[in-house]
Recover the amino acids of this structure.
């Protein structure tokens, strides 16, 4: 099979992984050196496909032959799809060629499980090894960790990769049992635990290095790196009946237990050869979007999953989770922007973290007026009932949340058409 | 009040309009320092880009040395603020927008008088400066993302050439970035304005890009053998079930498409997705290939492997 045919099949097979981030890697440069590649912590999206997703890495499977039969997966062994397998050299050639043309910032390599978990992991590590050692590639590498593989291999993978990820895919034991019988949540968690320990240990060594710098400038004498871009995982949304509350709580649990950098949510896309019981509907993209918003509140605004969704069920689709929380907690509002703690200003719907920073900076010099919110381009219609400024108090502070929600989600009034 | 001694200024500051010119940030900075020291209010200065004709008939030239005020301290502003101004100066104003030098001088005037809100986004001037800083940062990022190198046919292997049309003055920011990425490989970047060469060790800048570079960049793009591989990857990695035109164009403005080797695929992929392709995530051409279901196999555990 020609390289181009393999690429066509194995890129198609890899697109179900939502992650394509190239951020968080340490600073590396090839200036004045042999080899190629750099990273500066900032991710770069080199293109966007018409689905609005960023193309940052060459995202391919090493092979889509697979011994597993996970029902939600297009590559499961019972699926009647074209199969292919790259040699490590082919992946290396594609990565370097695309990288030099500036169409990618690195490689995202995943794979179906062939022969044994260890063998599969070894083959993936071989690709990363060739890139790093033979070609002195300093771009980004994201490797999929195969949870069942030998811990020694995970250790090796983390030495070459900027990021490792083991996918949870389904957040509950029952779903995993029915849809992915060969996978075990326990194994996935222990792999994540091992990766976390590796990262923590490398960070400790790096801190020790910073306190007592090694005498030699030779980088080999310095503490070895281990997945410096952290680890991430993915959960599929909408393939089974799991609700958003369960998803968010497992995400929060994963952030806490394994210090994940990111949890990705992937709306289940209909696949060919669909097994019975899986939806054939369009992917629930708005639901996925709301989950990302809620996840962002947990990661950066200091919200708890329980605050965002108190009971079982899904996030509201018509309003964003921050507005939903504010409407449920009217007793905390309106917030006086000239007095409130920055954390509380961040909880006002319609005011983002950057604006919080600017408001706090501004009020050191003078009182905040409503006009400032206009100038900062905050979402005025949303924040109006929730803030107090020097010259403004909400008139609808007493209006009940239900009516407030109705006014906020009401469709734009449209002029009647002439008959 | 930090910065400037007001007492010495008022008596010396005249009221006549002035013309000052600057070709780049450093020239502007030098002129602005003199004007500040002489206490010249922003409203009295007409700034020129250096090349164009005098546009204020009644103005006297400020390019002649200003009367230096005895003992006036040099104006001082924080280094971070200076960097912000330098960033904003890279913005190319459109016809109806305020020129870069008058905006910077207004801001500098206020900063030198201790008015820190002049750079806050909630201030009218500050908002404009921040907007420009943001636009410049975004354009540099666009250059890092959407510039494409191709093997330069005329100079052979390990030498690349690219054509790019930046909306603001970010060529040097891009060049630095690519020198980090490409290591010892040589490259050239051509733009409608300037051009730059990297020989693996140092940069050579051309204020106006050598004419033949444009044609060379085009020839290199056409002759590139790996172009088909990249186009194949782009088609396969797209998920037709998730079509989202708005998000794509927000992140990748259409002005860049015609210089991307995948650019012309986008409308076709969208049309195909709208007409039926949207049912599945799989790319149609992959689905048409012969499939292969695998027999239930046994995963070898470590013991058997």
């Amino acid at each position: 099979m020609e390289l181009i045919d393999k690429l066509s099949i194995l890129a198609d097979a890899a697109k179900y992984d939502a992650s394509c981030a190239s951020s968080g890697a340490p600073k590396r440069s090839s200036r004045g050196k042999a080899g190629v590649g750099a990273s500066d912590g900032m991710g770069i999206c080199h293109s966007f496909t018409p689905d609005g997703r960023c193309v940052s890495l060459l995202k391919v499977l090493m092979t889509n032959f697979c011994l597993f039969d996970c029902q939600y997966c297009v590559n499961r062994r019972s699926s009647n799809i074209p199969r292919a397998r790259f040699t490590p050299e082919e992946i290396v050639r594609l990565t370097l060629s695309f990288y030099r043309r500036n169409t990618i910032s690195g490689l995202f390599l995943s794979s179906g499980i062939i022969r044994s978990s260890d063998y599969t992991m070894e083959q993936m590590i071989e690709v990363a090894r060739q890139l790093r050692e033979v070609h002195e590639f300093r771009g980004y590498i994201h490797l999929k960790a195969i949870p069942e593989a030998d811990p020694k291999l995970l250790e090796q993978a983390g030495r070459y990769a900027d990021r490792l990820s083991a996918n949870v895919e389904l957040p509950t034991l029952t779903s995993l049992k029915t849809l992915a019988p060969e996978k075990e949540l326990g194994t996935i968690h222990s792999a994540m635990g091992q990766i976390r320990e590796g990262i923590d240990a490398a960070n400790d060594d790096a801190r020790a290095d910073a306190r007592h710098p090694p005498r030699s400038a030779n980088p080999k004498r310095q503490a070895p790196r281990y997945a410096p871009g952290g680890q991430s995982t993915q959960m599929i949304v909408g393939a089974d009946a799991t609700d958003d509350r369960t998803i968010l709580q497992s995400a929060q649990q994963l952030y806490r237990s394994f210090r994940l950098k990111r949890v990705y949510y992937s709306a289940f896309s209909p696949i060919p050869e669909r097994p019975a019981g899986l939806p054939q509907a369009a992917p629930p993209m708005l639901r996925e979007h709301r989950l990302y918003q809620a996840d962002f509140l947990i990661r950066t605004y200091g919200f708890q999953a329980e605050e965002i969704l108190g009971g079982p069920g899904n996030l509201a689709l018509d309003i964003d989770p921050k507005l939903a929380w504010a409407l449920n907690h009217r007793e905390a509002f309106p917030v006086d922007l000239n007095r409130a703690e920055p954390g509380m200003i961040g909880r006002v719907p319609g005011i983002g973290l950057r604006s919080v920073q600017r408001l706090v900076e501004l009020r050191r010099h003078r009182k905040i007026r409503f006009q400032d919110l206009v100038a900062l381009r905050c979402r005025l219609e949303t924040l109006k009932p929730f803030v107090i400024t020097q010259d403004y108090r909400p008139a609808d502070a007493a209006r009940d949340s239900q009516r407030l929600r109705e006014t906020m989600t009401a469709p734009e009034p449209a002029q009647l058409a002439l008959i | 009040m930090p910065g400037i001694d007001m007492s010495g200024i008022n008596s010396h500051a005249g009221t006549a309009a002035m013309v000052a010119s600057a070709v780049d940030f450093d020239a502007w900075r030098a002129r602005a320092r003199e004007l500040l020291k002489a206490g010249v209010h922003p409203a009295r200065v007409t700034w020129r880009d250096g090349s164009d004709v005098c546009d204020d008939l009644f103005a006297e030239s400020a390019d002649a040395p200003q009367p230096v005020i005895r003992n006036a301290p040099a104006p001082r502003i924080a280094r971070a603020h200076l960097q912000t101004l330098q960033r904003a100066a890279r913005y190319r104003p459109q016809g109806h927008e305020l020129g870069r030098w008058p905006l910077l001088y207004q801001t500098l005037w206020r900063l030198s008088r201790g008015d820190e809100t002049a750079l806050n986004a909630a201030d009218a001037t500050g908002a404009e400066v921040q907007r420009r800083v943001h636009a410049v940062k975004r354009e540099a990022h666009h250059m890092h993302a959407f510039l494409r190198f191709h093997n330069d046919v005329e100079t052979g292997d390990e030498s690349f050439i690219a054509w790019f049309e930046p909306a603001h003055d970010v060529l040097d920011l891009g060049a630095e970035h690519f020198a980090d990425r490409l290591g010892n490989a040589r490259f050239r970047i051509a733009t409608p304005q300037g051009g730059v060469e990297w020989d693996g060790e140092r940069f050579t800048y051309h204020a106006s890009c050598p004419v033949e570079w444009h044609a060379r960049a085009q020839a290199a793009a056409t002759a590139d053998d790996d172009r088909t591989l990249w186009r194949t990857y782009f088609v396969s990695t797209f998920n037709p079930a998730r079509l989202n035109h708005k998000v794509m164009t927000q992140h990748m403005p259409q002005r860049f498409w015609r210089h991307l080797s995948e650019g012309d695929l986008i409308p076709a992929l969208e049309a195909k997705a709208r007409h039926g392709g949207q049912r599945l995530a799989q790319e149609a051409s992959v689905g048409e290939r012969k499939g292969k279901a695998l027999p239930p196999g046994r995963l070898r555990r470590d013991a058997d492997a």
